[in-house]
Amino acid sequence: MAVKSRIERKRPKEARTKTDVVRLKLVFVAFVFASLWLALWCRAGYVQLFLGPTLSAAAGKQNLATEFELGERGRIYASNNALLATSVESKSVYASPVEIQSPARTAQVLAQILGAPRKNLQKDLSSRKGFVWVKRQIDDAEAQALAQANLPGIHLTSEFRRMYPNRHLAGQVLGFVDVDGKGLEGVENLFDERMAGGRAKFVVQRDASGRRLYLDDEGREMNIRGQDVRLTIDTVVQDAAEQALADAVTRFNGRSGMAMVVRVETGDILALAHYPFFNSNIPRQTKPAVRRNRAALDIYEPGSTMKPFLFASALENKVVDPNKVFDCENGKWTLRGKTIRDTHPYRWLSANRVLRYSSNIGTAKIGLALGAQPYYNTLRGLGFGERPGLGLPSESPGILRQAKEWTEFDLAAMSFGQGIGVTSLQMAKAYLCLANKGVARPLRLVLDPPAEELPEPARVFSAQTADSVLSMMREVVEEDGTGKVARIPGVSMAGKTGTAQKVGGAGKGYGEGIVASFVGIVPAEKPEFIFMVAVDEPTPVVYGGVVAAPAVRDIALKTLAYYGRLPEAKVPRQEDVSESSMTARAPHPPTAEGGGATVPNLMGLSVRRALEVLGKRGIVPSLKGGGMEITNQKPAPGEPWPDGGTTAKDGGFILWLGQGDKEAKQ
Fold it and tell me: What are the TM regions of this chain, as residue ranges (predicted)?
């Protein structure tokens, strides 16, 4: 019994020991779990409170993508609704470096597809920027290859590349844009803010594979397209002027040339041509001197084309009448130790014959009789010494000194167009005053948007004075004057030739260079059009009546025929004055002229010719792709013409462009 009692007393003690161990284990486990639980809560709190914004942004980058859309730049139209400048949709490549996992591999693939330097690409892709341009305005083949490569962080976006369907037509007037679509010169620069397309940003969602789900239309409903501009230029007249000018400059080996056509009733500039031509599609391949709008920028001494204004001022101030006689000194006269010469020796000439034969000596004597201040007032009233007011970039005001600074010889020289610097636009504006019965009015190049403020017409000469000067100018063409080569049978023309010496190097004296020019006003008794042509440094013939007058005749013939002002019975048979002769030559004739009930086949045509065909239906198509030849079209040939609207949106006309050897986009 005693032994049993001792055993019983021993067992409770062992049990208590085991219980204590279990309890310690439970406490330890509980402590561990509590510590872990507390650590997790602390971590969660830290993540939520301190890392929350950063992680939220990172998560957004994984399932959301910000994209942008650039609006189309406004178009430029001519007064006859021809399209002068438009924008073609093209693809550009940009990168989001933060999304790129392997910049080296991505750069290698891009270099193979785009032909860009791999090292430069890798450097850009290794940055931590959110946006980097890779290559702008790529072709369709490159865009397709990139889409198939499916490179993370490399994206395609749509941009608009500026295109000028008529190539060099009015190139210096239109100007051009840079790769970002910013207007740099000409009308593109003048109305850059108006025509520039807007930019819309919107967010798209991505699935687990990174594919974009366009569920958010934010920004796509905004009107981000630029506004259009309409010029007074008529493409038919412009083309006629460019062809005649190019022929005159090349035939007489000139350095450059300018031609202009102005409608008298409105002051609208129907043509403003320059040669050498400038193709706005390829500005980087052209020298800055060729891109210059010489009519607005270049200052020259006008020579004898200035004489009609001297005669008008003298008549207005009653210094002379058309029949007053002047001694022309047999072609050589010394004034203040300097010699004034005429091309041909004349003795006694009436005032009207002084202008007809363009005598410098007779004109100088009339100027001396008039006086410096009255002549200066006339020149200022005509707009010399100030900008023409068209708003073109860098319009020049020319050079006109104050009358008090003139010497006696200065007055004599300025009477026949030396010692004064003018631009072609200023000359056109001055002749517009004469043709408009002595009332000065502004030239106009832009129809839409209309000018906010226009100067009030101001009378410079009486109508009688203007008629008298035009009558004397008519003798220059229709009698045996210096401009008789410009004569058009059945059409009365008032005109004036100019053969002006150019100032020599460093502005000292006169060099051997000549500016040959001619101005024609048609019809002389009731003017409707003004024609101007100037050729810089022609050789070996230098006279305006030989070099420039035939070009004016050519432009006037075609313009009058185009507007139905040319008497049919008087048109020489050898002259081609049909409308078709005044349009640019297309390499392929159209398969249809667009007048039928169904859409013609435009594939294989040049862009310009296709637009002409569609223009007859009042349709302005949407252009896609690169190149200058139509490779595909929608609607297809033979389908009905699209109803409603003139653009290619919502089922309208679409033309795909290529080089002629690539398959059209389907």
Answer: 21-41
